[in-house]
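for the writeup, i need someone to sanity check this before i put it in the appendix. the sequnce is what the collaborator sent (i think, or maybe the updated version? ugh). structure was predicted straight from it, no edits. if anything looks off just tell me and ill rerun, i have time this weekend
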Amino acid sequence: MSTHLTRRLLQLYVGLALYGVSSGLLVRAGLGLEPWGVLHQGLSEHTGISIGVVSIIVGAAVLLLWIPIRQRPGLGTVSNVFAIGIFMDATLAVVPDVHGLLAQVPLTVAAIVCNGVATGLYISARFGPGPRDGLMTGLHKVTGRSIRLVRTSLEVVVVATGFLLGGSLGVGTVLYALAIGPLAQFFLRVFAIPEAGKESASEVTSPAPARGTAVVEPTP
């Protein structure tokens, strides 16, 4: 296996693991989850299934929606479905709830930054988008609507449904929405991997993809 491929695989799985850890930390912080996390938590509350397993089930269901919009999953897409939920539940098993703003605020901030690092790692590996991002870009292509409109519409429905089901919506949700885009953009540049055979310094430090492609606020 080439060094180039090894690095890509390492970034993919470290990124997905960190994404699951960051999602679990947001739950423990108790100040509000990322948009899809609100839905996962609401469904978990009503079904008794762990939030990580709910994340896996929802990811698989979303992946099925790729079929009519003719999206093609990659290794990263399938890995995304399972890895994030597994590491999220593992984090919740070992990290207790925190109480009081002096603990909750730093944990929320740390979780959001960790999520940004994770996003930069797994997207830069270029093994395919997460199922939710793929649904967004697929609907963009099918409907002709802007990425911004499609993403906003999806997440409004997701957050509203999750909140009605009892998911945690709060200041952490707002902070995540405001911070994750710039964080993802920054870490996409930090972890950018040049294509095989293109190792020049200019390409290693090339800017992240243009707005409207992979550089949207990530939904795994």
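The chain has nine helices and no strands. Confidence is low (pLDDT under 50) at residues 199-217.
thx in advance!!
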